[in-house]
Amino acid sequence: TMTVTDKNIELAKGASNNAAADGGGITIDAGSDTDKTWVWSNSRNAWTSSEFIQVAAGKRFGFADDTNTYIDRPAADAIAFTNGGNESLRINSDGDVIIGSGGVWSYPKPLNVQGSSGLILSLSNFDTTTYAADTFAGIELKLKTGNTGTTDATCEIRGLKENGTNGNSARALTFYTGLSGGSNKERLRIT
């Protein structure tokens, strides 16, 4: 056991820059097992660890210069992301994702999104190579339809570009459904 009465341990003292301190750190000699290390990596501009890092209960990962932005564990088997002092995203123990409501939701679903005044959930397709007609961003709704035969089926809602002219922003909203055993077809278009 080494006891240090001073408050600070200096490694690589006298190193002229980060590159000279590269590889400096702490190594635990694990005998016949793999050594455990906490090492400065100049190429990554970061500390690296050979092992998992676990934070004690009630503690969080944060930033020294932005104390109201951090990642923590608000409850067992849950993780939360807070920025600007407000919880913006939580993943609960059942895998449900809650965005924008402070981590609470009256009737939670697997994905919950709430805005402070109005809400737009944005899905983008920024294909700039073709500007082709029918380039789209969409939502696929997937269903489990049985355990024999066709076991999965989908419906889709697409926002799409109606033409292939660069700069022409004519667009439409389309809805796709399918019959049993068949592929989806466009059933409704709003232009």
Describe the structure.
- The structure is a single chain.
- This protein is mainly beta and 191 residues long.
- It contains one helix and 13 strands; from the N terminus they run αβββββββββββββ.
- The strands form three sheets. A six-stranded mixed β-sheet has the order 4-5-6-7-8-9, with no helix packed on it.
- A hairpin with a 6-residue loop joins β5 (66-72) and β6 (79-83).
Give a short summary of the structure.
The protein has 1 helix and 13 strands, in the order αβββββββββββββ.
The fraction of residues assigned to DSSP E strands is 35-45%
* Structural class by SSE content: mainly beta
Anisotropy-based shape: elongated
What kind of oligomer do you see?
single chain
Summarize the helices and strands and which ones pair or pack.
Blueprint: H1 18-21, E1 25-28, E2 36-41, E3 46-49, E4 61-63, E5 66-72, E6 79-83, E7 86-91, E8 97-99, E9 111-113, E10 136-144, E11 152-161, E12 171-177, E13 185-190
Parallel strand pairs: 8-9
Antiparallel strand pairs: 1-2, 2-3, 4-5, 5-6, 6-7, 7-8, 10-11, 11-12, 12-13
Spell out the key features of this protein.
191 residues, mainly beta, 6-stranded mixed sheet, 1 helix, 13 strands, elongated
